[in-house]
Write a structure and sequence with these properties.
- The chain has 286 residues and is of the alpha/beta class.
- It has two domains: 242 residues, Alpha-Beta Complex (Spore Coat Polysaccharide Biosynthesis Protein SpsA, Chain A), CATH 3.90.550; 35 residues.
- The protein contains eleven helices and seven strands.
- Strand 1, helix 1 and strand 2 form a beta-alpha-beta unit.
- The chain starts with 6 loop residues before the first strand and ends with a helix.
């Protein structure tokens, strides 16, 4: 019988060919090596699975492809297949320092009473106010606890195997399925802890894609519904898109972008017609 690893790392993916291999590379460099990786792919249309298989020679990696594109379903399935003493749910775009898993093992050994945890984050300094964003997220964890709403981002949640056998991610929730998981575990008596170290690198690609103002509005509305109104989020995602890695590669639509695409694809006849329209407009304003 195979010996059970200490950690089972469960990562759901959807079109993550750019990011997931980077996480796997980080995992291959960990100083703590007693872990397995359970990769649940939601029928990606890119090379996510093919690129992941390259790392099977270096780490204990198992991949399963499913048709259902639902991150909560993927996490639940991964947890069911996990053999480790602890299950670490980890997003495909996370990056890890080499000592990350070693640090988690140390914290778990020092806090044997906990059943669920998350950690503080770090962000790269490639966006304006990156340190402010990092502090806001980390202190936000603490604020949740102060108002009796323990929560965590699905980017990194750890739980004992016993916990995931009794608590599931809510597959009908469009957002906050991660924080609901923590709350449901709390209700069953499992203690939740926020480790301030070790930290992992949290991707700000959503902020870069959406823009700061739009993200602020999305998060603010969602937080009010979550903290004050206690909504279930089964019908409304407040614009928080969950489309996998390919979403971040989509170009934003604008009149200039549309014009550029038209010019690139237009035939000579179409361009001649467009020039005539522009000349006619110019004459009307002269």
């Amino acid at each position: 019988m195979l010996r059970k690893p200490f950690f089972s790392i469960v990562t759901p993916t959807l079109n993550e060919e750019k990011y997931f291999p980077l996480l796997l590379e980080d995992l291959s460099k960990q100083t703590f090596t007693d872990f397995e990786v359970i990769h649940i792919d939601a029928n990606s249309e890119d090379l996510t699975i093919k690129k992941a298989q390259v790392w099977r020679r270096k780490i204990n990696l198992k991949t399963e492809k499913v048709k259902i594109r639902n991150v909560a379903f993927q996490r639940n399935l991964g947890a069911k297949k996990a053999r480790g003493q602890w299950v670490i749910f980890m997003d495909a775009d996370n990056r890890l320092p080499t000592y990350f898993l070693q640090g988690l093992r140390y914290r778990i050994d020092k806090n044997p009473e906990i059943g669920v945890f998350t950690t503080w984050i770090q962000v790269e300094n490639d966006v304006p106010l990156s340190k402010t964003i990092e502090n806001a997220i980390n202190l936000g964890y603490e604020a949740y606890s102060l108002v009796g709403k323990d929560g965590a981002m699905g980017a990194l949640i750890g739980a004992k195997k016993e916990v995931v056998e009794n608590v599931k991610f809510r597959e009908k929730a469009k957002i906050f399925e991660d924080s609901f998981f923590v709350q449901d575990a709390n209700k069953l008596g499992y203690k939740f802890e926020i480790f301030r170290d070790p930290k992992y690198f949290f991707s700000l690609r959503r902020l870069k894609k959406e823009g700061g103002l739009k993200m602020f509005n999305i998060i603010a509305k969602a937080q009010i519904d979550y903290i004050i109104l206690g909504k279930s989020f089964e019908t409304n995602n407040h614009g928080y898109v969950m489309k996998g890695g390919g979403y971040y590669d989509e170009e934003k639509h604008s009149p200039l972008k549309n014009l550029q695409k038209f010019i690139e694809k237009a035939s000579k006849e179409q361009l001649d017609k467009a020039k005539k329209i522009l000349r006619d407009l110019q004459e009307q304003f002269e």
